[in-house]
Design a protein that fits this description.
Two copies of one chain form a homodimer. Chain A folds into three domains: about 5-180, Molybdenum Cofactor Biosythetic Enzyme, Chain A (3-Layer(aba) Sandwich), CATH 3.40.980; about 185-260, Alpha-Beta Plaits (2-Layer Sandwich), CATH 3.30.70; about 265-425, Maf protein (Alpha-Beta Complex), CATH 3.90.950.20. In chain A, about 40% of the residues lie in helices and about 25% in strands. The first copy, chain A, has helices at about 10-15, 20-30, 45-60, 80-85, 95-105, 115-120, 145-150, 160-180, 195-200, 205-210, 235-255, 265-275, 290-300, 315-320, 325-335, 340-350, 400-425; strands spanning about 5-10, 35-45, 65, 90-95, 120-125, 125-130, 140-145, 150-155, 185-190, 215-220, 225-235, 260, 280-285, 305-310, 355-360, 375-385, 385-395.
């Protein structure tokens, strides 16, 4: 199996100022082509360390994909280090990248500076893969077998995730032209509503009976629930996929309604799939989640077809004035209560005219009130078959609570719409 | 200088299904104590690879902090690997962690399963540091100098970021009790409004005159703008901080209004600082940003003091009905226009009664209309000194555009409020 190492270059990663999201995206793309990522390494903007560490990774792996350190500023030294590592005898200009640089800066109304043009200069030992979203080109270096004990290749991508992502297809094409690939079958199931340990206990009879070459992983996440990933390395893809399918059919009865998708996705995408083309619409009324549910729903392209809008009623006055919540209800039941969640959900349906709505009212922060502790949220879902509410209780961390509240609300909405769809079919 | 390696254990990282955020948080915490992170490595759930790679890192670094692979499920094998690496002769129960496990599950209404209790069992070669937010305890292993050529320590933390973060202070206390520390001075300045290359050209005279032991890094980010980080390793902290301060004073005139903070922060936090205690309030009206501005504003603890709410008017009907935008304005000027952004900003101020408001209307997606191309947003800011609007134009990527639109809107709002504060003082 072709092996890859992914290296991230930059002091900003090592001192923890930014989180590396490139490695994750690159390893997914490699995995889809049957290339196994065996290591990910982050190293500093230090010429000698770059050279020695990349040499080691090129010895251990067939392919090294590195990102970062290609900016126009003085702290970026990856290009010089790669020139030395690859035995370059000088720099040459990529005319095509220079055209892109000029167009890119012109479109944004920026001046073309010498530092920008310098980015089109690359070591003569590399093959250029154009960067169409930025100024620094991708550099591909191919090494003969005698250099590292086997044929090896190194790809240097820009560190900006948006640019690295756009360059990936061309990089993968070059990789596939030079290295053999193996089939890897992954299937991911999405569940929401059960903690990892409860889920594990629930499906233990099924898990214990899995064939020995199938590997199951649990991936808990506050906004998507627990993902279950089933993998087989090697074998014929079509046959392995059929075997995984059979196992999934055996697993389904254990999971019931907690299973919300048979591929890697999100609650907001599944809700979009349920509503798209149905003529039904959605709105949200958010207090403690502060707009996060609307934000998640509108990350989905085409959401304007079914998402009408949201009222973020952070202040009680907005709950009453815009959503028509009765101040007496807030007074008698508490601002974080089933009645207020229901009134908010019904209010925003009235204001926007949507088919469905979801509302949240809770204490995201370290304080609650005499009725409900911190970490509590009441979710209301309203639609043609009435209004339901549910209480969820989490921890004491603001950002994490906002995420969990939003996910719990989306899940309650998902179950409501699914029930509606099922009863509509009957 | 004490050196650290940070290791992440888990197939889910290597196949790219989740992004590692722990390493970043841990390296920041180590850096604050003058411990330099020299490498970050991610490795698979494979016993032999865990043992050999951690041994190598313990040879190269004084401290290894690893996360992950401690879950209650069968795919997690870090604990067994560490038992072997450390020469453990068996497992012992941490009575204190077992109490936490029972309390933790009880509080969430979950059953105590054998797999949960198994997490309180640790190798007899380790010292337990309690995990108060989850079930798997932190394990600290101290190795004598003869094992790796120098005194070394390995800390194994749970992979769930929320749990790892909570355990960090106790881990750092143990580290500081066993290893020397060095002063590292970092200062971060936040800028918004200039691209990395333009910023670099602007401050070149200052950067070229920096003392040779001061290191400047540019960290561009779509939601916070370009961070500038100035660092000095070694020397006396108080003296180095004074030298950095002097350089910052020299830099300020170059940056002008583009500089929005003298420490690592966000636009939404700076806006919170401007409004907190002022008695002034804020609301948002969001179309293309879909609630993201409200979400960012409400991630700030205490934002309920000044943030009243938002109307996410995704559908034109909500813009007219709730915000009072004149349908004739939408018809004559276009839905993405200066006039509609201004009317939305003024409308949400009227609805919520806030002092300030910010509004967005734009094309986040791949399509625009005959008036404005995809990637365009009009931002409106309204307040006591009138309404201003500004047009921003970005690329063709939905999620990134939503982020950039939200950041551009927050920055226009920040400049407006700052001007208001300055003129109020005069």
């Amino acid at each position: 199996m072709t092996k890859a190492s992914i290296c991230t270059i930059g002091d900003e990663i090592l001192i923890g100022q930014i989180v590396d999201t490139n490695s994750s995206r690159i390893s997914r793309a490699l995995g889809d082509r049957g290339i196994q990522t065996v290591r990910m390494v982050s190293l500093p903007d230090d010429r000698q360390q770059i050279i020695s560490l990349l040499s080691k990774e090129l010895t251990d792996s067939d392919i090294v994909v590195c990102t970062g350190g290609l900016g126009p500023t003085k702290d970026d030294i990856t290009k010089d280090a790669l020139a030395e590592l690859s035995g370059s005898r000088g720099y040459v200009k990529s005319e095509e990248q220079e055209v892109i640089i000029r167009e890119f800066l012109h479109a944004r109304g920026l001046d073309v500076l010498p530092a920008n043009l310098q980015q089109a200069m690359v070591p003569d030992s590399c093959k250029v893969i154009l960067n169409r979203r930025g100024t620094a080109p991708v550099m591909a270096f191919h090494f003969p077998a005698e250099r590292f004990g086997h044929p090896a290749a190194l790809y240097s991508l820009p560190g900006v995730p948006f640019e690295a992502e756009a360059a990936l297809p061309d990089v993968l094409e070059d990789i596939c032209a030079h290295f053999p690939t193996t089939d890897i079958c992954h299937r991911t199931l999405m569940t929401y509503g059960l903690a990892e340990s409860a889920l594990s206990a629930l499906i233990a009879p099924w898990e214990d009976a899995l064939p020995s070459d199938m590997h199951l992983a649990y991936l808990p996440n506050p906004t998507t629930g627990v993902r279950l990933r089933l993998s087989i390395y090697g074998g014929k893809a079509a046959e392995q996929e059929k075997r995984i399918e059979e196992q999934i059919e055996l697993l389904k009865p254990y999971l019931g309604d907690n299973l919300y998708a048979l591929s890697d996705t999100t609650l907001e995408a599944v809700i979009g799939d349920l509503l798209r083309g149905s003529g039904k619409t959605l709105s949200t009324a958010e207090s403690c989640t502060g707009g996060m549910i609307a934000h998640l729903l509108t990350t989905i392209s085409g959401s304007s077809e079914y998402f009408l809008g949201s009222v973020v009623s952070y202040a009680p006055s907005v709950k009453c004035k815009v959503l028509g919540v009765n101040p007496a209800t807030i007074e008698s039941k508490g601002i974080v209560s089933s009645d207020v969640a229901a009134a908010m959900a019904e209010g925003v349906r009235r204001v926007t005219g949507s088919t469905y709505s979801v509302a949240t009212t809770g204490w995201a922060d370290t304080y609650g009130d005499e009725r409900e502790p911190a970490g509590t949220v009441w979710v209301g879902v309203s639609g043609p078959s009435g209004t339901v509410t549910k209480r969820f209780c989490y921890h004491n961390d603001r950002k994490r609570n906002i995420e969990r509240f939003a996910a719990s609300a989306l899940d309650l909405l998902r179950r409501y719409i699914e029930r509606d769809c099922r009863s509509g079919r009957q």
